[in-house]
Structure formats: structure tokens, C-alpha cells
Amino acid sequence: MSKTPFAHPNACLTPLPLGPAPKRKTRQASIAWKTNIVTVGGDAPVRVQSMTNTDTADVIATAIQVKELARAGSEIVRITVDTPAAAAAVPHIREQLDKMDVLVPLVGDFHYNGHTLLKDFPECAMALSKYRINPGNVGKGAKRDTQFAQMIEAACQYDKPIRIGVNWGSLDQDLLASIMDSNGALANPKTAQEVMIEALIQSALQSTERAIELGMNPDQILLSCKVSNVQDLVAVYRDLSRRCDNPLHLGLTEAGMGSKGIVSSTAAMAILLQEGIGDTIRVSLTPDPGAPRENEVIVAQEILQTMGLRNFTPMVIACPGCGRTTSTTFQELAANIQSYLRQQMPQWKKTHPGVEAMNVAVMGCIVNGPGESKHANIGISLPGTGETPAAPVFVDGVKVKTLRGDNIAQDFQVIVDDYVNQHYAPK
Fold it and tell me: pLDDT above 90 covers what percent of the chain?
């Protein structure tokens, strides 16, 4: 009995493409304050956005937090505008930021009474760079169309872009009921999950059409449809991206605390970004008590940077440690260097262009240490347990010296500084 030989496993296989899919083609919006124009969509990079959690009526506290978020790298910052006191504070917050030369655009987050606040506080309307409108919270019944129209009229009057931000927790109940009734009449009705997704998308698209009818520039309308389940978010944005050409804001709402919030946000947005979907992102982390708000900015940047979509700060490559590395020296050095690089970036960004793409390796033993160090711009391989107390340093793949003694951390930082000054100083 003859046997057909197995084909080589690589025979006739089309090579898989490397990297993310081409970015989805969209309109391009401009979110600006004075000379700082942040483009979103079109050929612009994926932008990082964040939101304050201070009482907006507290001018100083809010201005300080906005400054911290902007310094961390947030390109757009959203603030809650929910009361007359908050609306009255917005121009003063803007004034404080301008005095500090923090020109990050501010987005007003409106719910329920946005139409009234924009009308009664024109200075607030002018000080904001964009309005976020939730179509599920603009009013009920006969008031909905009128109050939505008033917000669009304000955006047109002051030439401000808008984000129509639908949220599954505050979905337009009349629209949902209508879609459910139509679905119930089908021979093969959709699932409750599919109905919810359709309601989110229709709410965004119908609101977009109405805004354009009222005179809104189509190029200045961004959309979002936020849910808190990873698979639902992927399904919503895949469908929405096929049915419009507006820039899309990604974010898993109510993502949660700590590693859960980071992992779920990353899992959802990484899938969409890999498919070329998404023009701004926000990581909605519930902060630990006392934790800095800018952590959500750092996570958003790291998502984009680890996916190769943008560079924000030099990255530290470090091994996880094992039984060969019972000393914590390499862990401490890796943490110190990463913190140092991030602290330096606001200044280096101005004086050393390109440094954000630099890689630094801090490894813990001789197994993978020298090899990983050679692949980085700068690398150090610290001695593991029982190894000779010497730490070879590699620069652009070449061993340049060996560090010993109690000052390895300080000596290595000097090497990093020298490398930055030699390779990224303005020519």
C-alpha cells in the first residue's frame, strides 16, 4: 500500500502580513486651543485622551490635574461640566492653564443639562475645545430633539467639534424599545446582545445625521459607543467602523481597577487597533485610593507603543527574574531607569527629538542577558545569583565596558545620559 508523503509544512503558504492593518480611512477633525491643534482621524496618529476626577468647580485642583495629565502625555483632557458652578469655573481653569503654558484642549462632558449650561455660560462654551454629547442623556420625549439641537447650535456658533458619545448604561430607551419591537416581529429575531449593539450604533448614526441637518460640519463629528464587555466592544466598533467615516474614540467604559482594568482595556482596544480601527483612546481605570490620575495616560501610551503604533518614551526591556536572580538589584535598576526616562521626557521631547524610540535593556543574568542587551540601544546584564559580580554594558550591540561595585546604578544612568546627548541632540 503506497503512502502519500506529507507536504512540507511551509509549502505553498502565503506569508502572513506583519504589523497592524492599514488605518481605517476617516474624516479628520481638529481639536484646538490657540496654537495647539490636535488632529484626529485621517492621517493623524492615534491620540491619547484622559479625564479629570476633580470637582470642576474647584478651579485650582482641576487645573493642576489637567496639567499633570498633559505633562504625562494626554493630548486631550475631558472635564465634567454638570452644574452652573462647574460651567462658571471652566474659563478660569482655562486661564490658569494658559498662564502655565499648558495648551492642551479641554473637552466638556455634558449630560442632562448641557443645553442650558452652554446657553447660560457662553464663556464656558468658548473656553472648551470640544463638547461631548450623550444622546441618551439630552432629554426625554419631545424635549430630546430641542435640547440636542440647542447643543449643536452652540457647537456651530462657537465653531467647536463634538463627540457623540453613546454609552450602554445610558442608552436612549425609546430607540431601544423601538428596535426591540421591530426585532420581535422578525421570523428569526436577533439576540438581546445583538439588539443592544444595534441600538448603540443607530443612536450614534442617527444623532450624527441630525447634527449635520442642523448645520454641524461633518468633519467635526467624532463618535464613540462604549460598553464594559470586551467582546461587545469589539463587535460594536467593527460594525460601526463599516457604517461611517467619522473618527472613532475607543474606550472600555467601567474597565475596573488595577490589573483587571488594564488587561481588559488592552485586550479590547488592541484587537481593534490591530485592525486599523480607532483614532483616540482612553483607558478608563478606577484609580486606587491616592494613586496618580495620570496612570491611565501611561497605560494608553504603553498600549500604543508596545503595538508599534507610536513612540512616547524610551522603553525598558527587563526579564521577569527566576531562581537564577534571587537578588533584587536588576529589578530596582529597571524600575529606577524607567522612572528616570519618563521624568526626563518632557524636557527631552523639546531638546532631543527621536529619543522616545530608544530601547534600554536591564537583564538579570547571563542566560539571555547579553543577547537581549545587544539588541537594545543600551543594555546591561547584571550578575545572577552565584555569578561573577560584573555587569557588562552594551551600546548599539557592542560591549563598551563592565561595571562593578556599589555604584552600578549611577554609572549606568551616566551612560544612558551620554548616549541620549550623543545620538539625539539637535543637529
Answer: 89
Distance CA 20, CA 273 (A): 7
Contact 89, 329 (CB under 8 A): no
Q: Is the pLDDT of residue 162 over 70?
A: yes
pLDDT tens column, 109-144 = 999 999 999 999 999 999 999 999 999 999 988 899
Q: Is residue 18 part of a domain?
A: no
pLDDT for 290 equals 83
Task: Confirm or deny that 387 is annotated as ligand binding.
Answer: no
Q: Is 319 annotated as a binding residue?
A: yes
Please give the pLDDT value at position 123.
98
What is the domain-level CATH number for residue 349? 3.30.413.10
The DSSP annotation for 106-154 comes to: EEEEE-SSHHHHHHH-HHHHHH-SEEEE-GGGS-STHHHHHHHHHHHHH
Whether residue 209 is annotated as binding a ligand: the answer is: no
Last residue of a domain, one of 287, 307, 327: 307
Total Cβ atoms within 10 A of residue 288: 10
Q: How far apart are CA 43 and CA 261, in angstroms?
A: 29
